[in-house]
Amino acid sequence: MRPPYLLLDIDGVLIPFPDAAGSAPATHARHDVVSTGRSAANPVTVWLNPDHGRLLMDVIRTGLVTPVWCTSWRQDATTLIGPLLDLPALPHVDLPRPQITTSHPNGYLWKRDHVDAWLGDAPAVWIDDDFTSLDHAWAAERTAKGTPTLLVQPAPHLGLQPEHLTEVTTWVAQLPVARVA
Length: 181
Ligand SMILES: [Mg+2]
Hints:
Layout: E1 5-8, E2 29-33, E3 44-48, H1 50-60, E4 66-69, H2 75-84, H3 112-119, E5 124-127, H4 133-144, E6 149-152, H5 162-173
Parallel strand pairs: 1-4, 1-5, 5-6
Antiparallel strand pairs: 2-3
Helix pairs in contact: 1-5
Magnesium ion binds next to loops.
Protein name: Secreted protein
Organism: Streptomyces venezuelae (strain ATCC 10712 / CBS 650.69 / DSM 40230 / JCM 4526 / NBRC 13096 / PD 04745)
Pfam families: HAD_SAK_2
């Protein structure tokens, strides 16, 4: 079995949502970025935890997963967010820009149909803050059909925690991945 993809969301995972008081965790540092379609006079403020770059690299360096951005930041994940965390240029799932007012227009995460098609029958661990029970059922069904699939779901106001990546490495380590010498 080939190494699973590690699908990485950004909003609610690497960039926590502000709490009711509008604050981000003290672990996170402020950056202003000019995302695609914005002007330099109108940047987006994001909050990132520099430890996340190191923690993700610890997982990536194992070679046991193939990391891919899976986020509405699309290409900007590679060009804007990754470098702020000292991450190498990673590929991204080329998600569309649907005209939707909820992230669950059909009761499950809007990204999922695209991810399902993109993955084909590849195993995957997917970190996103926005799964519903239908997404967890999808992952269980894929796994039952022989395609190991793990969903890891940080709390959106806290974002990614070290234990989420421990869960990833523990899960990957028990897969029957063909090791290439
Ligand atoms: Mg998210």
